[in-house]
């Protein structure tokens, strides 16, 4: 459904020193810097898949989405979405896609959301019967009955975001580009939006490319993730494999019998090979880190050498895993190739 091969998007940015004289000099001798917002990335997304697109601010996520929707032209490379070149701006292509940006509004500020829906109905030339049916489904799924006829400026952020989603889906697109759809929402509203995205994906078979800084969005919706940093694709694969690749250690939490000696406990932990990150500040509760492949052996050793009341083994938080992935500076590894070939086979 989405095919990207060696996509690059570069900008030439004007730079100058502050001050009046620097402004005058820049009129004659302008300095420019080349910014590689997206630099030679490739990926394929088959129909019906929800893919998380992760990266720090400025990594190239939104730029990539704008190229995929035709808002920007690529500097080089090949982009194909639903069989179309996005930069051709064909009406048939625009009816297949929708772009939702959590930080930008498409609703008319001073009129009710229902009026904006009618504008979209006219733009996409939606038939009356299909419009009423789709609107009814969206209103029910997103619980919009009480907000449809309120001016948008009077809506809460969560209510506005739900109306933004409804406006974007009135023409029933089968490809969704969601850029921070839950930004600024409280925990309850985030869960509502996530359930809706999943329900829409399952009912329509929509392909979804999702960016978010909330790891809850990613873990709830995406089995596959792509990590981009500095304009380059650093990882493309299963979410579970991302944890193993960027976090080779697990965390063990121990609760000890208070009758045990702190000094003796410290001595045992320091002498156990592989144990790092020891936290004794909340003794008799202790935290430590161990290599993944040694979890069973080290746990068994600690159970026999310490007065353990409880032992818990945890994976690191997704925030820390993604943070580690963001710091990756190398080019994409060979691990990406099997995933691309698999996606290509599904597409064919």
UniProtKB/TrEMBL annotation:
<dbReference type="InterPro" id="IPR003439">
    <property type="entry name" value="ABC_transporter-like_ATP-bd"/>
</dbReference>
<feature type="region of interest" description="Disordered">
    <location>
        <begin position="325"/>
        <end position="348"/>
    </location>
</feature>
<dbReference type="InterPro" id="IPR050763">
    <property type="entry name" value="ABC_transporter_ATP-binding"/>
</dbReference>
<keyword id="KW-0067">ATP-binding</keyword>
<dbReference type="Pfam" id="PF00005">
    <property type="entry name" value="ABC_tran"/>
</dbReference>
<dbReference type="InterPro" id="IPR027417">
    <property type="entry name" value="P-loop_NTPase"/>
</dbReference>
<feature type="domain" description="ABC transporter">
    <location>
        <begin position="2"/>
        <end position="255"/>
    </location>
</feature>
<dbReference type="GO" id="GO:0005524">
    <property type="term" value="F:ATP binding"/>
</dbReference>
<feature type="compositionally biased region" description="Basic and acidic residues">
    <location>
        <begin position="331"/>
        <end position="348"/>
    </location>
</feature>
<keyword id="KW-0547">Nucleotide-binding</keyword>
<protein>
    <submittedName>
        <fullName>ATP-binding cassette domain-containing protein</fullName>
    </submittedName>
</protein>
<dbReference type="InterPro" id="IPR003593">
    <property type="entry name" value="AAA+_ATPase"/>
</dbReference>
<keyword id="KW-0813">Transport</keyword>
